[in-house]
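CORE FACILITY INTAKE
Project code: CF-77B
Contact: R.S. (postdoc)
Sample description: multi-component assembly, two entities in total
Requested service: structural model of the whole complex
Turnaround: standard
Below are the sequence entries exactly as provided by the requester. Do not edit them.
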Amino acid sequence: MTAAAVRPPPSPVQLERRRRFLRSVLLGGAAVGAALAGWIPIAIRAEPRLRPPGAIAEDEFLASCIKCGQCVQVCPVKAIELGDITEGFGIGVPHIDARAQACDFSCDAVQCILACPTGALTHAISKKEEVRMGIARLARPDACLARQGAGFKGQARGPSYTGLHRYEKVDRWKPIPVADHPYDLELCDLCVRECPVPEAIRLGPMSDDPADRRRHVEITQTCVGCGMCEMICPVEPAAIVIDARAQWRPA
Amino acid sequence: MSLMQSIAIMLGREPAKPAPEAYSPEARALHEEKRAHKADKALRDELHAALHDAHKVHTWRNRRWITLLVVNLLFVASYRFDVQLIEGALTASRVIGFHFADLNSALQVTLAFKTILINLIIGTGTVLLMWLLLGGRSFCSWTCPYHLVAEWAEALHLKLAARKLVKDHALDRRVRTVLWVVFAVLALGTGYTVYETISPTGILSRALIYGPGLALGVVGVLLLLEIFYSRRLWCRYLCPIGLTYGAVGAVSPLRVAYRPALCHHEGACRKVCLVPHVLDATKKGYATGLHQGLGADCTRCGLCVDICPTGSLRFEVKYLDKLL
């Protein structure tokens, strides 16, 4: 018999010590593993999220955001939501679902940027015209009422829609529900009419015929990607959408 | 106990009986005296009775729970009812306009972003100073919402354990130190605040303020583990935030102090404590002086102060009693 074969069985104390070590490694490893699993949603996400005004480049944004939600708290139209754990490392990081509630800059002074304690929403920006969240795009031109020469009458998003918008002519200071502000338009120009940035969207004639009421939608380089057009678009799903994070190529 | 020993024990070293030369002459005399005069049965019975009464004292626990609830509800009310006293969440906030930043969250962001942010410097400076004065890990027991639900889970665990339905499985305390380093390295290496993904403190604080989400599943899993598998698993063995604040508590003047003179070494304090290794001095013959603070890892929760029938454990502000 070899020396190893006659080694006495481990004492209860030794056994417990071994088990404790194993438990510690397994549970500690599980905690690290669970946290690292937060990388998966980042890796598989096809479309970038629409981030609040002033958000720096996505990787840096996720790194610098301290997940406190102060931007959420100051937004007068409650456009900003925090990511759930399904966003992985993006948990607690703010984003905007423009179709549900867009940023319409009704705070006037980009309050979310002022609220951000880490500069994840960069303090280099102080005016809405400087914001670059993305670019609007007419994703479904066939559905666009303006391109059909059609008008629009009624509540832009129906009676049950709860989204808010500040109508300067109604109340300069307080956003009201879009449902409380019905329209009666001979030609639908809602995206142009409610766009908070001057000249970001234009309607142009489709032909030389003056009787042709159809208008095409042109998005200019002043578009900041706030998503107001996507929110107000009365067709379902929206004809105009924001390509989050898209940037105009330098001319 | 020296500062280095206190920190080593916080990092995971098991406390040991002090070396003979570590005892002060007064402490040595006290231990001699106690050995010579073993408490007779009448005195022991009296003590057990006193201990029974002590179990009903919840002064500090109640103060602490009220404080914890008020702080967290102030966050909620500030947003929900636009009171604007504490805006933000526990990870970072503005308290009547002043930046506050959680030390651990600020550390993760700084390591991941690799930039010194002036607002975070201000925020962490304020918070560092605050918890330096208030006891370091007192953040855990007096503010962290997870600590409160974990205390309730612990009560359930102890009930089940008393009926032999569950058994406590201890972990090696060094695992917390390893996790702290691992999460710091991961933040630095990946550029993401990896730890925040599972931080029950951040998740619970945001859930309270902004509404519940799937992330509460993390809290649920942890509580289930703590009820059925390992008592106070997260706060005791794993949470890196606890270690961050523990480092602050190592030098904080607000502490629980132990005076062995009246102590009968029944060990009731160690049984209720989240971090019993800080109470090693309460074992018979372990106290090296007549008056010493508990270690850095102490969360200043006051459970030991409540349960001690002899008043041997008390809150104190170091240096302040000398001034007065």
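Facility notes:
- Chain A has a mean pLDDT of 93.
- Residues 12-36 of chain A form the longest helix (25 residues).
Invoice: internal transfer
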